[in-house]
Fold this protein.
Amino acid sequence: MTTTREPQPTMTSAAAVLPPDAAGDGPRGLRQHLPVLYPAAMLLVFFVVPFGIMLAFSFFHRVQGGFYEPAFELDNYARFLTPLFVSALGFSILLCGLAATVCVALALPFTWLLGRSSVRVQTAWLVFILSVLSLSEVIVGFSWSVLLSRSAGVSNLLVALGLAAEPAAWSPSFPALLMGLCYVSLPYAVLVLYPSVVRLPSEITEAARTLGASPVRTFLTVVVPSLRRAVVATLILVFVFTLGSYLLPQLLGQPQHWTLSVLITDQAVYQSNVPFAAAIAVFLMLVSLGLIGITLLLSERGRA
Amino acid sequence: MTKPTPHSLGHLALNRRSLMKTAAAASAVGAVGLRAPFVHAQQRSLKVGTYGGYFEESFTKHIFPEFTKATGIKVDSVAEPTGEAWLVQLQTAARAGQAPADVSMMAQVAMIRGTTGELWQPLDMQKMPNAQKTIADYLNKYPDGRIAGVPAVTWYITLVTNTDVYKQEPQSWAALWDKANTKKLGLLALASNSFLLEIASETFFGGQDVLKDEAGIAKVLEKIAELKPNVALWYRDEGQFQQALQSGEIPMGQYYHDVTGLAAGEGFPVRSTFPKEGGVVDRGSWAVVKSSTRIEEAHVFIDYMSQPAAQGVLARKVGTAPTLPRQLLDLSDKEFAAVSSEKKPIIPNYQLYTTRGDWVADKWTAMITG
């Protein structure tokens, strides 16, 4: 299959914004550069500068029982490389990788079916999905912990239906946490996949059907590979999004399910150890950037 | 103008020490005062920080108006976030020469951290005759003896149970370790807010001497690890546990005596028990940030709050335990029992969470996540 036939996922390519004929002659002079300068300045002010401050803090000296002093030392990084924090990092990556996989596995067929339904149905669903986004993580977490509780949760329904002997507490637990993470990220996954799915030429699937493939087979062997880039982009988005979640692991997880983000919160808020919190955050960011790089590399190689 | 920003998850839950009132700082603009020439004396004012939510609401309703009536000093109430987020904000603001609040109610670990960083203005006890009568153990001092903080309120963490599930009232903290209570407990998630190290020492090691060195602390941590199978929820957020306790979802645990009493008063099947080893007494202190320019007004306020009458109002209306010895107060037995106890309390070893803080926090996290 040639690459040019693939629709461009919206997230990855800024060039898609420009009209195709503008690609040949680039912008000239300050005025034409202005549209680029603005986002560049925003990126500098709201990302590069704060990250620089965080990076600087991560080398500061922690005063036990006090605050911190400007310094350049590697103690915070050394402390991170202890079993407690390294295992939390490993768990966070596994959890968020799993959440991303489950979430995309649910979102992709859903979005595919959504893309094939009428405009009215699509609009209704998209409005509903957007309204789910308005719920904060706290509300989502508390609601799920009630829904999964022994005294008021869904397990009581199973008892009423005679499917279970007695109600059970399903939260806090690993499945509860995984479900919570998938719940908050599913709308994002659908919204990111949606443009690529609706832009997928219908001839592709029609051809597959004409050649005798079943709908399921068409989805798995034609649709999914065609949407590969969008799928990878969505996996990365959900992975990074859930990696930052620090409320749900506390609300729906046991202590062994606390992610690195929870430990960062503990250090920054409860232990007043901003330098160490910064060091963990820098480490988390480097590791996730590394993983994203590997994922992109592998998916590019897979296409060749 | 500074508004406390949400840092902990606590601020969104429906409970008292945690709930944030974001609107509180809005009135600070008015505090600057109109500089109209006919105003013969610019009204004196003071920004006072208390824990957002129930505390801040109660102080605004029951305390500040009376204070203004008595002294002519207008109070601008500031809602503080819980945890040490407020300390970080005060410290950052002080570096920039600003004071988000002149007087703040501070938790003890934050108080000690601020003392190490010289964040608090020394207070003059000579200017505060009422504050001199507060329980001496509760004063916060700099190493050279200067006063850094005066007790504002105290409160107890006790053994709480759901009365539908536990007909029999437990008598000792040892109930937390009872194998019959598997998956029944809600406990605070951090060493520095659960005080379980102190509770375990008093219950099983004959006092807190065992916490003097790291080997002793490790032994106590091992003892606490034994109760892990009993814990259904390690909570950072009070709202999470209170709801579960009231519904019987998690029928036993540690919680705040005053809030539990209020819930029982509203008809929920809960009770608070001072175990034979004592309840844990924690406290908030008044401290004045070094960047504040209203030190005179701050002294007037702190002294006013230390009066027996003001402590009585706090006990009756806010539900905090008094900072003064019982004989100075006019509380009835019932009113006193609602907030406090004459049983010897367990006083937390705050040094554990400051000078040894990082070591204890890491060992603790490893113990409960392991």
